């Protein structure tokens, strides 16, 4: 199993945990009735990582996150945050985690401010400090001006931002977000992205789940591809692309009815007005095509190496396409 490793400054908490990992998840298994939701999920994170769980609905992302927060108990395996066990030391672990669940949980009739007061007290933040922190999180989420309005008047995106604000009140070291951009407007989405980048730059470790490839590409320095209850591949985007991404060359020559033949081509496919030639040896194939172009006097409109995509990585490691 690949270990996710990122070099970041040590904190008092990491020094107390193993090997500088703040989070160590080992062999998680979980079944609901007859459905095996998780099978042997293992990963470790160093502080400051922005870690993305990419997978389709039902892959097991939410279940993994809920086990980290202590909401769900695993059948076997362990999750330790700063050496504290998520299942048996839930209160200690909760102090470190800000959790933004998939479903928005707010009191519609209360104002944004009142909602945050409620959540802050639940986290044990009180009095002047709570006021100060509510101001801080409202400013961060761009909702200071709407603080006193009832949440029922908010858009889905604004509600989601308040939900994130609530998870930040106790200044967590690990922020877990479960598909936070589903069904929200682009403005809120951009705001959430900026906020996550800012928090991560300030040292907050992020776990972000999504079924949108472009989100993990934009936000995460480590990606775990999850499908059918297990992590199929894990690592930095560049490493995943290099290791599993499909390399190809795109060739467009008007009137070329058949794809060129070469032992370096594994699959040829018509794409647009040209041919997509999949290969493990793009340089050798390129040389061959340049020779062919010259010998056959092709009128080449386009000839280029196609960068492997995360989509092709997903296809390779899971055997299926990730549909949005
Ligand atoms: N409370 C539950 N009772 C029964 N089955 C459940 C429960 N929660 C999750 N499951 C099942 O466990 C599997 C993993 O679900 P999970 O919610 O962890 O996946 P996910 O990747 O987060 O997908 P989604 O985005 O749909 O939440 C799915 O087959 C799901 O139907």
TrEMBL record:
Keyword Metal-binding (UniProt): no
Record-linked InterPro entries: AAA+_ATPase, ABC_transporter-like_ATP-bd, ABC_transporter-like_CS, DrrA1/2-like_C, P-loop_NTPase
Single annotated GO MF: ATP binding
Keyword Lipid metabolism attributed: no
The entry's keywords: ATP-binding, Nucleotide-binding, Transport
UniProt domain ABC transporter: residue ranges: 23-253
Record's protein name: ABC transporter ATP-binding protein YfiL
Source species of the chain: Paenibacillus albilobatus
Gene designation: yfiL
């Amino acid at each position: 199993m690949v270990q996710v490793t990122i070099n970041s400054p040590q904190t008092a908490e990491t020094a107390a945990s193993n090997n500088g990992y703040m989070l160590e998840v080992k062999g998680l298994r979980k079944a609901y009735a007859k459905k095996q939701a998780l099978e042997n999920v293992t990963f470790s994170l160093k502080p400051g990582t922005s870690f993305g769980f990419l997978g389709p609905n039902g892959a097991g992302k939410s279940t993994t996150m809920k086990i980290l927060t202590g909401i769900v108990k695993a059948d076997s395996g362990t999750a330790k945050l700063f050496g504290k066990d998520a299942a048996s030391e839930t209160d200690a672990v909760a102090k470190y985690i800000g959790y933004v669940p998939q479903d928005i949980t707010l009191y519609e009739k209360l104002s944004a401010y009142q909602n945050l007061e409620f959540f802050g007290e639940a986290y044990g933040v009180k009095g002047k400090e709570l006021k100060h922190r509510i101001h801080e999180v409202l400013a961060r989420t761009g909702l200071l001006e709407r603080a006193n309005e009832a949440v029922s008047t908010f858009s889905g995106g604004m509600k989601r931002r308040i939900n994130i604000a609530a998870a930040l009140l106790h200044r967590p070291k690990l922020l877990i977000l479960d598909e936070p951009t589903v069904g929200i407007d682009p403005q809120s989405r951009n705001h959430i992205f900026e906020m996550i980048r800012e928090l991560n730059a300030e040292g907050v470790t992020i776990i972000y789940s999504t079924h949108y490839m472009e989100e993990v590409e934009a936000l995460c320095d480590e990606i775990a591809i999850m499908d059918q209850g297990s992590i199929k591949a894990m690592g930095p985007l560049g490493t995943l692309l290099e290791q599993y991404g499909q390399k190809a060359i795109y060739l467009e020559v008007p009137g070329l009815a058949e794809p060129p033949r070469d032992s370096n081509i594994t699959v040829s496919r018509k794409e647009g007005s040209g041919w997509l030639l999949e290969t493990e040896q793009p340089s050798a194939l390129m040389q061959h095509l340049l020779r062919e172009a010259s010998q056959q006097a092709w009128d080449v409109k386009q000839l280029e190496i196609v960068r492997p995509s995360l989509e092709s990585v997903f296809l390779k490691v899971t055997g299926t396409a990730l549909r949005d």
